Every structure is written in C-alpha cells, then in structure tokens.
C-alpha cells in the first residue's frame, strides 16, 4: 500500500483488515477517533508501537506521558508539527 492509498482509505468506514496494528492506530487517529487509536497503540509491545503511542499522547497534550513513550521507542520528542509526525510515522510503518 502506498501513502496515497492509505490516506485515501481514511474516507472508508473501517480500515483495511490487512493493515498492521500501528497503521490501524494511525488510521483511526486521522479518522478522528483518538480513543480507538490509543486503545490499539497501548497494546503494541514494540518500539514502533511505542512511537505511535508517544505521538498520540503528544497530540493529546500530555507531554510527560508522550516523553515516556518516546523514551520507550528509543526516540526523542520531535520538534515538528503533529501532521508532519503523523506523515512520517505512516511512511515508516508502510516501510
């Protein structure tokens, strides 16, 4: 799946069942359902899952919690817009 195909799919009612958990979480986030995105991300026990989880807490505005998850992901909080971080994460997860 390309980035364009992924972003176009957000117009659908549900995400593609073949998406990874990280992409599914990012899909729900862009769809406007932070709670579903978070419930998925918090159960992904990988560095990429922690990166998505960190992004979601940054978006929520709970920076101390975001920083904890960035640390678990082996990253530092980026100094970019949330939209840019979302795009970077999607590109990374599409890998």
Q: How would you sum up this structure, described in words?
A:
This protein has a single domain, classed as Serine Threonine Protein Phosphatase 5, Tetratricopeptide repeat, CATH 1.25.40. It is 66% helix and 0% strand. The longest helix is centred in the middle third of the chain and has 14 residues.
Element layout with pairings:
Elements: H1 3-9, H2 21-31, H3 34-41, H4 47-60, H5 63-72, H6 82-94
Number of strands: 0
Report the uncertain regions: none
User: H/E series, N to C?
Assistant: HHHHHH
- Which value, in Å, is the CA radius of gyration? 12 Å
**SS field, number of helical segments:** 6
Structural class: mainly alpha
Task: Please state roughly what percent of the residues sit in beta strands, choosing from under 5%, 5-15%, 15-25%, 25-35%, 35-45% or over 45%.
Answer: under 5%
Roughly how many Å apart are the termini? 10 Å
Number of domains: 1
Query: Mean pLDDT, nearest integer?
Result: 97
The CATH topology corresponds to Serine Threonine Protein Phosphatase 5, Tetratricopeptide repeat
**The CATH class:** Mainly Alpha
Shape: globular
Indicate the percent of residues in helices.
Answer: 55-70%
What kind of sheet is the major sheet?
A: none
The appropriate CATH architecture is Alpha Horseshoe
